Amino acid sequence: MSAKMFELPKSTKEEMAAAIQTYFMEERGEELGDLAAVLMLDFITEKLGPTFYNLGVQDSYRFMSQKLEDLFEIEKK
Questions:
Q1: Domain annotation covers residue 3
Q2: Calpha distance 16→33 (Å, rounded)
Q3: pLDDT tens track for 62-71
């Protein structure tokens, strides 16, 4: 799996890094710099992101499988 699995637009990455900074300030009382927030985001994206991505793929597969099964209900008998 590639380290660059998720290519985020710059504006999205900035918003997410800002959210990490806000979290650290509000929950831990720690000020996190821009670089530290981006590095934290990169870690989350590279190490944890694939797990959430795969869960989304599995959820989509189950949803689509159910919809395909529903299609058989309209079969003429």
A1: no
A2: 13
A3: 999 988 887 7
